[in-house]
Amino acid sequence: MSSRRGASDRIWADLREQIASGRLAPGAALPSTAELARHYGVASETARLAVTRLKEEGLVSGRAGAGVYVRSRPPLRRLGIDRYDKAKWQGADLVAFAADRVASGRSWEPGDQTQTVRRVPAAPDVAAALAVDQGADVYERARLIREHDQPTHTLTSYYRPEHVEGTHLTDDSAGPAGPGGGFRVLTDQGLEPAWIDEELQARMPTPEEVATLQLPPGEPVVELHRTTFTAEDTPVEYAIGVHPASRFAWSYRFQIPDSAGRP
């Protein structure tokens, strides 16, 4: 049984990589189970298990009597500046990950986000971002976001305890932290977000991230670092997001700065 599972995993990973890279494009037909079995030198049942796993991930779908095809599913648009528009989280109760789904023409449910919340000592980067002493207590809110059964990304936010104690940001129930999410909570605390500093970097995932995000072999991730400030320059959130590179298209729209001639 373990031998069959190992061979099935190999076929699944190979086909998944072909889909992620575009070698098996949206709408393309997968080889039949018999063809896969001959190509990989395995039993038909072993090949079938690999295809079933792709179906369960939503990467392929069967057509009665016509084979199995790669689903047409473009990457999620990960909005840049527009995802933080105050009209979304103040007026429309739309949290950032949901704004991305709406912009992508995709559905979402509150339960698509789950989290664990705990108090932890501030690591050096967290301490620097939140302007607290290294090792000081901070709240860590680690979220896993899914679309249907597939993880899309993780986002872990850190807060000063005096800013969020007793709010929904310390509640680990599934879903956003109430209407409008964390930014609305901070606003209700008298800490309205006013500006954000974001940095992006690409890297290879850790083994834990490969398992959590169900990544195919060789897939890089894009790591996001976000620090949110009030109008008085008080840091109220530091967040680290990990996004599979093939699952997101990053979208930005902004005014072009013009500082020419200014002192």
UniProtKB/TrEMBL annotation:
PROSITE patterns assigned to the protein according to its UniProt record, in alphabetical order: HTH_GNTR
Domain of life: Bacteria
UniProt GO MF annotations: DNA binding; DNA-binding transcription factor activity
Ranges where the HTH gntR-type domain occurs: 5-73
Keywords annotated in UniProt: DNA-binding, Transcription, Transcription regulation
UniProt entry tagged with the keyword Transcription: yes
Short name of one Pfam family: UTRA
Keyword Lipid biosynthesis annotated: no
One GO term of the biological process aspect: negative regulation of DNA-templated transcription
PANTHER family documented for this protein: GNTR-FAMILY TRANSCRIPTIONAL REGULATOR, MANNOSYL-D-GLYCERATE TRANSPORT/METABOLISM SYSTEM REPRESSOR MNGR-RELATED
Protein name listed in UniProt: Regulatory protein KorSA, GntR-family transcriptional regulator
Provenance organism: Frankia alni (strain DSM 45986 / CECT 9034 / ACN14a)
